[in-house]
């Protein structure tokens, strides 16, 4: 019988017995919690999803004891379905750190990313939507170290800390789970419509401000991609939402620090050199495997995402295109820092008139020199 260690003797006895009675041993090796990236053959992918769900389902009483009610798996391939009770209590004016209501009914909250494996949605006793994420096994990870560094009172008081707060740390048999508010992955999609060019600038400025903060804390994200950038709204992303980008109401944040790297806070970031993490955005940039500076990669990955939205303004403001052309014209070794990009972005914004910033965007996104109009 495998001993399942928890914080108290009573919990240790209960979970050791539960594991033995069910004939189920929960792995605490993070390699077994890897994201599913191959979906063919379908039977193999469905089997991996079933194995992932078995882990979360086994742990459901543990999370319930902490006031967290996990979503059910709605079918062999998902999605995750909200629990019947308690009922979601989100409103359209929800205060930090919770997401604003952008959904019409419970079905709009379904979780499609069941292949992510390390994360699972839940609802707390008060009806708030949260995400539970396994961030460490018995050997401490840089991801857990990053969350510790980002959630000190000092770090949380910095307005540039555009990451979600950790609400709870939960420990189970050598694993560490964190609980965070659930936000929607829609900042760089047109489902939450932009009313003005100023709102486009708000989006990009907020994320570069957040990246500046991460880099000041000597944290390289290494997986900046649209699904790892969120905003404080929950809703079905295929349904357009209006008036959800107002300054002071909308919030944006980085998530998913699985591949991040932590360095001592007195590090010289320009001198950092590590093996490149070959993620989706890096490949889209055409960067090759090998040694790199992960802080430069972060700046470029965010620029690739940012231009999709902000270059919509290039239709009437050619200066916006010139801003991104400046970034892409740099040799890799001369890639500007997040701070330098942020300063130049603010200079550009400051050079525009109020009337220019109040203009409505010419379309929903920019791609390969073309602005895609709203349908």
From TrEMBL:
Gene3D superfamilies named in the record: Transferase(Phosphotransferase) domain 1
InterPro entries tied to this protein: Kinase-like_dom_sf
Source domain of life: Eukaryota
SUPFAM superfamilies: Protein kinase-like (PK-like) (SSF56112)
The protein, known as: Protein kinase domain-containing protein
Organism whose genome encodes this protein: Ephemerocybe angulata
